[in-house]
Amino acid sequence: MEYLIYCDESEKNGDLFTNFYGGALVRSVDYHEVVDALEQYKTDNHLTSEMKWTKVTAQYVDKYKGLMDVFFDLVQADKIKMRVMFQQKERSEPRLRNLTREQRDDSYFLLYYQFFKHAFGLAYSNPSRDPVYLKIFFDQIPDTREKAQRFKDYIYRLQFQRTFLESNLKIRTEDIIEATSHDHVILQCADIVTGAMWFRLNKLHLVKPEGSRFRAKRTKAKSDLYDHINRRLREIRPHFNIGVTTGTNSYADRWEQPYRHWLFVPNET
Length: 269
Prior knowledge:
InterPro entries: DUF3800. The protein is 42% helix and 19% strand.
C-alpha cells in the first residue's frame, strides 16, 4: 500500500491570515480512479492547460465549479483526503519576534514540515501495521537547491520517529519529489481549494477597484467559486467554520475525516 500525498503552499501574505499550506492524499488503491475521473472531466470540457486559483476568471468559473464537484465527490467518497493549514496574522506575528533570524528565514520550511507531519493524522492511519509507503509530491519549492534538499532530508527522517515507526510508515528517498503542478491534476485541485480559503479568510471577496462601486469581474468569479466550494464542504460537515481548526471526537479523526482545516499556533502540536 502507498499513500500518494500532494502538497502545495499558497500565498504567504495576507492581511488577516497567512502561510497557507494545502494537501491532498490518495491511497494507491484509489489512485487511478481519482486521476481518471479528474482528467476525464478536463478532457470532456476541453481544459488542456493547468487549472489553478490564480487563473480563475468569469469566463471559466463554471468549468472550475465542475472540476470542484468531481473533486469533492471523491472527497465525500473518502477517495481523497484534503487538508488546509494556515495562521492568523495577529496571533503569529508577535511570536516571530521571539525567533532567531535563521528561524525566521526558515519559517517556510518549518511550517511546511509541521503541515506534512501532522495535518493528515498519518500516525493514526495504519491500524493493520502492514508497511505503508508514502510517495510525496511537493509543488516546486521556491528556494535554493540546498535548502530544498535539507527540507527533503527532514521529511525522509520522519519515518524514524516513534509515531511513524509505530504506524509502520516508510519513506524512500526517491519518493520525495518536487513536482510540476501542470503534470498532476490532484495538485491542481489542492491549489484551487487552498487558494479559495486564502481568498475568503482575507476578505478579498469584498475588494473593489479604487474609485469603483462594484467588484471586478474576476473578484466576483472567485467569490462565486469559493461559495460553491463552501456548499460542498457543508455537505460533508454542516456549519463548517473555515477559520478554525476542524473539531474531532478522537485523535483518529485527524486521519478519518475526509476534509480538515488546521489553524496553526506554535506549540499546539
